[in-house]
Amino acid sequence: MTEKPEQQQAATDAGAGLPGAGLEAGAAPGAAPPSRAGPAAADRARQDPHDLDRLVESRTLELAALSSHLQGLAEKEKSALARTLHDELGGLLTAAKMDLSWLQSRLDTPAYQERLAQLGSVLDEAMSLKRRVVEDLRPSLLDHFGLATALRAYVDSACTKAGLMADINVPEDGGPFPKDVAIALFRIVQEGMNNIVRHAGAQRVRLELTSDGENYAFTLHDDGCGFDPKIARERWPHGIMGMQQRVRALGGQFFLESIPGRGTTLSVTVPSGAL
């Protein structure tokens, strides 16, 4: 008789590992166990929809700020790399060209002269590649002559390479643009031109840049095949989102209008006091 409590305790311990163990009294064997999320889940479930909207908006603003920070950091790294390539690699290549000229002036053997000439061609190609990489990383015209000159040169060069006609209307003396605004607008035009060259099948491109003292604005239009903007956002989301984020970070407005068969227009407006 004294062993019954121990046997009952053993049965209770063993039953903890069996299916259905731990069910409350009256619960069906196949019923789901009670939630362990506790009061926090109930509080979230009863949360005011307006509070949820504010939370989503807050998180969206945080992500936008992080994206802007990362874009700014990437531009700084590009600028630093461009300076390093221009100063250090450019100096090394220039020194190599000088040494090559010294050798060419002292070696008369035709076989040597031929090989040195080939080496000179390789160095010229390396210097040309260095210049292209530096310009892609950080357009020198943008830093030295301003946004209007940099855009005019870039769009004209891109259209010439792609066989497109270009109508470029930018002010000769549009005044200085803040550096962050200038690089943001330049990158947006650069992305837009890349899309035109790759996908539009256009014959003519028009670029207009204006500033009225309160806003900076540009319009990039092509007469290409056009597209459905909704489909474009699904097919090329990162390019469009990247442009939108650059404009949003400056407190501006971004418009993308396109109709299949009737071309595309990209318009951006940024307040002059954005930064």
Brief sketch in words of this structure:
The protein is an alpha+beta fold and 275 residues long. It is built from 9 helices and 5 strands. It has a 5-stranded mixed β-sheet, covered by helices on one side.
CATH top level class name of the largest domain = Alpha Beta
* Low-confidence regions: 1-39
Share of residues in helices = 55-70%
Number of strands: 5
Biggest β-sheet description? 5 strands, mixed
CATH topology of the largest domain: Heat Shock Protein 90
Average pLDDT, rounded to a whole number, is 78
> What does the radius of gyration come to?
32 Å
What's the tally of helices? Answer: 9
Distance between the termini: 88 Å
**Shape from CA axes?**
elongated
Note down, in words, how this protein is organized.
The protein is an alpha+beta fold and 275 residues long. The chain folds into two domains: 67-137, Methane Monooxygenase Hydroxylase, Chain G, domain 1 (Up-down Bundle), CATH 1.20.58; 147-271, Histidine kinase-like ATPase, C-terminal domain (Heat Shock Protein 90). It has nine helices and five strands, in the order H-H-H-H-H-H-E-H-E-E-H-H-E-E. The protein has helices spanning 4-15, 39-45, 49-104, 110-137, 140-145, 147-162, 179-200, 229-235, 237-249, and strands at 165-169, 204-211, 215-222, 253-258, 264-271. It has a five-stranded mixed β-sheet, covered by helices on one side. Helix 3 packs antiparallel against helix 4 (110-137), helix 3 crosses helix 9 and helix 6 (147-162) packs parallel to helix 7. The longest helix has 56 residues, at 49-104. It is elongated and about 85 Å long. Mean pLDDT is 78; it is low at 1-39.
